[in-house]
Amino acid sequence: MENTYKLWVEVKNSLDGTIPVSVPSSILTIAWRAYLRKLQTDPLVTKAITASILSGISTIAARVFQGNGSELKSSEIIHQMTIGLAVRAPLVHFFHMLLDKKIFRSYRQTSIPVVIGKVVLDQFVFAPAMTALYYYIVGLMNDEGCQVTSKKLKRQLLAVLKKAWLLWIPVNLISYGFIPLELRVLFGNIVSIFWTAYLISTVSSAKKNK
User: Fold this and answer.
1) Which member of 69, 178, 185, 200 lies 3.0 to 4.6 Å from 62 by CB, making a disulfide possible if both were Cys?
2) Secondary structure string (H, E, C) spanning the chain
3) Where are the transmembrane segments (predicted)?
């Protein structure tokens, strides 16, 4: 774990022209470099836009997982993209900053105790709050009252969290142990394509069965 941030150092050096990049020049390489530059200059905006796009993909994936053949409304995609843009990405961004720059700032970030501490705070403090917030926001977007959402959470939250822990505890061990802070939200967003699709399916099915 001592060399966890070597990748990010090499990326920044390549962007500055300090070292050559072995990957052949291509549209994909240019786009990736541009994305990394934006992560340095406008990290929050870049992460928010990325989360918004991937949330839209999650919405489409959720419909595929459900396999009910119903038409996907553009409003559903817009709602999820808005949540990714305005809620999920900013909160996750600042949570990671809080962990690295405040709570664990005096410790080696990739040491095993610190990684475990981050995972515990992430999954047993932050994740329940984020999941509940997601339910309430979706409820408001669907014109459901807070009372309806609260009942839904009471029935589903623990079961959802148990499934989340099976996925996100291993993912976060990798994220906090090996992924640079600047790329951590992107890593989580990619995994979230499938997790958010599951959440959308769960909330949608609960709405139909209420």
Assistant:
1) 200
2) CCCCCHHHHHHHHHHHCCCCCCCCCCHHHHHHHHHHHHHHHCHHHHHHHHHHHHHHHHHHHHHHHHCCCCCCCHHHHHHHHHHHHHHHHHHHHHHHHHHHHHHCCCCCCCCHHHHHHHHHHHHHHHHHHHHHHHHHHHHHHCCCCHHHHHHHHHHHHHHHHHHHHHHHHHHHHHHHHHCCHHHHHHHHHHHHHHHHHHHHHHHHHHHHHC
3) 48-65, 77-99, 160-179, 185-206
